[in-house]
Task: inverse folding
C-alpha cells in the first residue's frame, strides 16, 4: 500500500487539525470521561497523542537514501516486540500519572498545541523522499499516512461525546485501506470507514454474523491494524506496549488485545519519561 507524499501530508495535517479542534471543544469534565482505551480517560489519550507527535517529528527530519523496507500498511504488521503477556498496567499508569500532573484536564491542550505546531512546521519543510523510523525505512507519504491513521484511531478513542466529533473523511479512508491491505481482502461494503477502523484497531470486536457491523462501543485499546481476518485472538492498534530506555528515558508500548480480527492494526504506543 503506497501513498504519495502530498496525499499523506494532507491527510495527516487535516486530521491533526481535527484532533486538536476536538480537544479544544471539550470541557474539563468531558476529558475526564472514559475513553475507548482500557484504563484511560480522554485526557490520557490526549497526553499519549502529544508524546507520539513529539516522537514523530524526529522521524520527519530523519531523511535517508536507503531503500524503503515498509509501506503504509506493512509498517503495522512488522512490529513484534517481545511477548510481555497481557500486563499493561505499568504503561497505563505511566500515562495516567503524566496526565495527573496537569492541574485541570484542559491544561494538557497547551502542550498538545505546541506539539501540533512543531509537526506542522516539520511537515511543511519536508520534501518527498524516505525517512528512517523505528528501525525501518518508509517513503515519506507512507510514513505520514501511518500517523494520519493513528490520529484517526485516537480521535475515535476519545469517546462518543458529540463534542469530540469524528475524524476526517480522508484519514478514515486511509484507515480502511490500511486494514484491508493487511487483511488481504475488502471488508463488507455496508461497513462504514469508521466501523472498519474501529474493528481493525481492536476497539470493537467484529461480528461474523450477517446482522450488521461491529458496535462502535468501548474495548481495550488494541495494538495492530489487521493482518488476517479469519484468525482470532490477536488484534489491531499501534505496536504492543513494551518498556524501553531511550537516552535514559523510559518508553512504553501497549499491547491491546481484542477478540476477532487477527491483530488487524498494530498501533505504535510509544510514551517516554
Result:
Amino acid at each position: 500500500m503506497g501513498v504519495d507524499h502530498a496525499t499523506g501530508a494532507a491527510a495527516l495535517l487535516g486530521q491533526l487539525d481535527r484532533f486538536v479542534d476536538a480537544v479544544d471543544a471539550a470541557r474539563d469534565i468531558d476529558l475526564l470521561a472514559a475513553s475507548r482505551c482500557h484504563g484511560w480517560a480522554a485526557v490520557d489519550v490526549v497526553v499519549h497523542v502529544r508524546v507520539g507527535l513529539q516522537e514523530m517529528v524526529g522521524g520527519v527530519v530523519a531523511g535517508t537514501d536507503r531503500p524503503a523496507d515498509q509501506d503504509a500498511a506493512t509498517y503495522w504488521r512488522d512490529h513484534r516486540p517481545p511477548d510481555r503477556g497481557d500486563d499493561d498496567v505499568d504503561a497505563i499508569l505511566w500515562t495516567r500519572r503524566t496526565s495527573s500532573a496537569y492541574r485541570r484536564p484542559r491544561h494538557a491542550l497547551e502542550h498538545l498545541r505546541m506539539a501540533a505546531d512543531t509537526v506542522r512546521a516539520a511537515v511543511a519543510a519536508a520534501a518527498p523522499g524516505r525517512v528512517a523510523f523505528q528501525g525501518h525505512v518508509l517513503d515519506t507519504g507512507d510514513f505520514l499516512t501511518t500517523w494520519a491513521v493513528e490520529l484517526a484511531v485516537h480521535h475515535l478513542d476519545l469517546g462518543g461525546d458529540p463534542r469530540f466529533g469524528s475524524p476526517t473523511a480522508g484519514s478514515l479512508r486511509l484507515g480502511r485501506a490500511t486494514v484491508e491491505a493487511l487483511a488481504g481482502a475488502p471488508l463488507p461494503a455496508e461497513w462504514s470507514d469508521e466501523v472498519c477502523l474501529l474493528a481493525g484497531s481492536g476497539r470493537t470486536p467484529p461480528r461474523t454474523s450477517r446482522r450488521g457491523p461491529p458496535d462502535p462501543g468501548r474495548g481495550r485499546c488494541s495494538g495492530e491494524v489487521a493482518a488476517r481476518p479469519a484468525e482470532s485472538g490477536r488484534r489491531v492498534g499501534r505496536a504492543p506496549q513494551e518498556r524501553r530506555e531511550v537516552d535514559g528515558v523510559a518508553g512504553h508500548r501497549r499491547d491491546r488485545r481484542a477478540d476477532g480480527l487477527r491483530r488487524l492494526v498494530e498501533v505504535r504506543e510509544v510514551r517516554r519519561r
